[in-house]
């Protein structure tokens, strides 16, 4: 797998709405990295399960749902590294950290986002844990960050865009500069065509609700 990019970030005409605790979003992020399209797509973190506790707690129904979702990702993208974490974490702290990092260094913020996805979905770590977040911030090469009111407003705006975007509350979602939408993971070939043209709406399987 490609490592998170560390170069200068450019303006991104496509928007990717995803939650760090969604395995389909993790797989879509890995696809974008493999296609070299991460500079073309701006990730905006949302919380599709804002009620989840901190620290993450395991319940049998939740564990079974995670196992089903991870199996679905493996069937659709066998090359993507993914494992089932003990529990699905609340992602508010992690997403706020990405928002704060983007103010400081957009390219390293993108690296941080990918490190967070992989920490959860490859290494089964609890990304609601402040110690884990601080470690990953340092690995991304970022200084100590203070989350401020502007970062909270950014997170609220991303959430509002997603909730009001007629996406049926599904993720991942990618929106083109022409307003076309790719809902769910879909097929890899469809993602490639969508990134080239940005014209046709596509509704694919592989998503969190």
Question: What's this model, at a glance?
Answer:
The protein is α/β, with parallel strands linked by helices and 209 residues long. 44% of the residues lie in helices and 9% in strands. It is built from seven helices and five strands.
Describe this structure in words.
Helix 1 (23-34) crosses helix 4, helix 3 packs antiparallel against helix 4 (106-121) and helix 4 crosses helix 5. 42% of the residues are buried. Helix content is 44%, strand content 9%. It has a five-stranded mixed sheet, sandwiched between helices. The chain is an alpha/beta fold. The radius of gyration is 16 Å and the shape is globular. Residues 1-10 have low confidence and may be disordered.
Record the SSE blueprint.
Layout: E1 14-18, H1 23-34, E2 41-45, H2 60-76, H3 92-104, H4 106-121, H5 130-139, H6 149-163, E3 173-175, E4 181-183, H7 188-197, E5 202-203
Parallel strand pairs: 1-2, 4-5
Antiparallel strand pairs: 1-3, 3-4
Helix pairs in contact: 1-4, 3-4, 3-6, 4-5
> Radius of gyration in whole Å, from Cα?
16 Å
**Principal-axis shape:** globular
Number of helices: 7
Order of helices and strands: EHEHHHHHEEHE
Assembly status = single chain
Notable traits:
209 residues; alpha/beta; 5-stranded mixed beta sheet; 7 helices; globular
């Amino acid at each position: 797998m490609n490592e998170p990019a560390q170069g200068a970030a450019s303006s991104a005409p496509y928007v990717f709405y995803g939650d760090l605790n969604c395995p389909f979003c993790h797989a879509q992020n890995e696809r974008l990295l493999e296609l070299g399209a991460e500079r073309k797509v701006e990730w905006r973190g949302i919380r599709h399960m804002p009620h989840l506790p901190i620290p993450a707690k395991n319940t049998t129904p939740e564990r079974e749902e995670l196992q089903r979702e991870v199996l679905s990702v493996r069937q659709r993208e066998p090359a993507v590294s993914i494992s089932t974490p003990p529990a699905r974490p609340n992602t508010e702290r992690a997403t706020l950290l990405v928002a704060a990092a983007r103010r400081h260094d957009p390219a390293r913020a993108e690296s941080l986002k990918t490190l967070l996805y992989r920490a959860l979905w490859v290494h089964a770590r609890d990304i609601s844990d402040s110690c884990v977040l601080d470690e990953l911030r340092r690995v991304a090469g970022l200084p100590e960050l203070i989350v401020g009111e502007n970062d909270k407003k950014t997170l609220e705006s991303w959430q509002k865009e997603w909730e009001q975007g007629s996406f049926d509350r599904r993720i991942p979602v990618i929106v083109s500069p022409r307003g076309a939408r790719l809902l769910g993971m879909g097929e890899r070939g469809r993602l490639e065509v969508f990134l080239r043209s940005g014209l046709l709406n596509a509704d694919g399987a592989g998503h969190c609700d």
